Amino acid sequence: MRKQVVIIGGGPSGMLLGQLLHLAGIDTVVLERRNKAHVLSRIRAGILEQGMVELMHKAGVGARLEQESYLHNGTLISHNHEMFGIDFQQLIGKSVVLYGQTEVTRDLYAAREKVGGDVLFDVEDAEIHDAERDHPYVTFRRNGRTERIDCDFIAGCDGFHGVSRRSIPASVRREYEKVYPFGWLGILSETPPVNDELIYANSPDGFALCSMRNANLSRYYVQCSLGDDVGDWTDTRFWDTLRHRLPPEVGEALVTGPSIEKSIAPLRSFVSEPMRWGRLFLCGDAAHIVPPTGAKGLNTAASDVHYLYTGLTQFYQDKDSDGIDRYSEKALARVWKAERFSWWMTSLLHRFPDQSPFDLRMQGAEMAFLRDNEDAQRVLATNYVGLPY
Ligand code: FAD
Ligand code: DHB
């Protein structure tokens, strides 16, 4: 088989890129290691920047998003049980949209099926060959047989644990990493959200986040220890912990119920440079990870897709390689700003095991400055709604 672009990974990056390239007349195949049901069952991000929303529209998958998403004009921050608001609209005239990653992926799969685009599931042992030469190809095993696809370019959209990044020789790669000494325990419950805006809380017992998916589906997170197992956390323990970390009036209003999903995610900042090696381009979590505080993971994957899609269409339509030649440089410039913001939000909102009394005072002073200073709030709002592409 021969395709113009082989996309490894059928998560949001790979599917969004595939749909945009398809509409530009570029022939692609998506290779996904898992099956469709598994990909669609993953509960992850919830907040979309305007740039990502526009990309979804450009990819022809904006209709349900338009109908079913919720506009969020601001957010609440609680510090030691006292709350203040950051009003994005008032500060900078912009908003974010609440629409789950699960829905984004569902819409992208439905669109791909509608146009008859190739997606191969249950692909094992994908391997990238000759990426630094003019005629790269990908081999993999499926249904017990080895297959090969020749192509012009390979998009590595296969997440943090994928094969693409590791295909770049270690001598070429530079990796930057920070691992945080805690994780997030997240639950989904069929209960009304405690508040119509998100609440990010830094309490003496650690971080908590109140989010949602719709009027009867809540998404809550609490900071947990790295060694914790989901089995250690009964629903009762989760609700008690969450309630305790929120301002009393919020805790009292919390409606609890059985969790329908519960999982623990470790927190890490990670960037691998460069994001291009020959004819291989890394996109999304394959190249970088942010801690989830500030909701930048999916949105940063989307900005990579924008730069790569623009570069590839320039290459095929205008015979101009400037966009793909500068892909790594352009994508990384924005990635590092999202890394900085996520690291800052994480540092501001969590309790660290080794935090000294001085560190705690610094965190408190930073919070007080943010609460009282509109310029500081504007900086947060500008980053939260998303920097321009
Ligand atoms: P992924 O979503 O990881 O998709 C990669 C795809 O590639 C997967 O479908 C995988 O099965 C496939 N794949 C992997 N290896 C191979 C291979 N060798 N061959 C073929 N296919 C392969 N972000 C937020 O903003 N807010 C959140 O609350 C949040 N929560 C998260 C919770 C968890 C547990 C995780 C892991 C991430 C979370 N993120 C969150 C980050 C956000 O979900 C990611 O940034 C986003 O999924 C990135 O999309 P992606 O397509 O680049 O990678
Ligand atoms: C959600 C996750 C985040 O990391 C965040 O900052 C905001 C919302 C969510 O899953 O809804």
From TrEMBL:
User: Which enzyme type, at the first EC level?
Assistant: oxidoreductase
Span of domain FAD-binding: 4-342
One GO term under biological process is: benzoate catabolic process
- UniProt entry keywords in alphabetical sequence: FAD, Flavoprotein, Oxidoreductase
The EC number of this protein is: 1.14.13.2
Judging by the UniProt lineage, the source's domain of life is: Bacteria
Q: Which GO terms describe its molecular function?
A: 4-hydroxybenzoate 3-monooxygenase activity; FAD binding
NCBIfam families annotated for this entry?
A: pbenz_hydroxyl, PRK08243.1
This protein's name: p-hydroxybenzoate hydroxylase
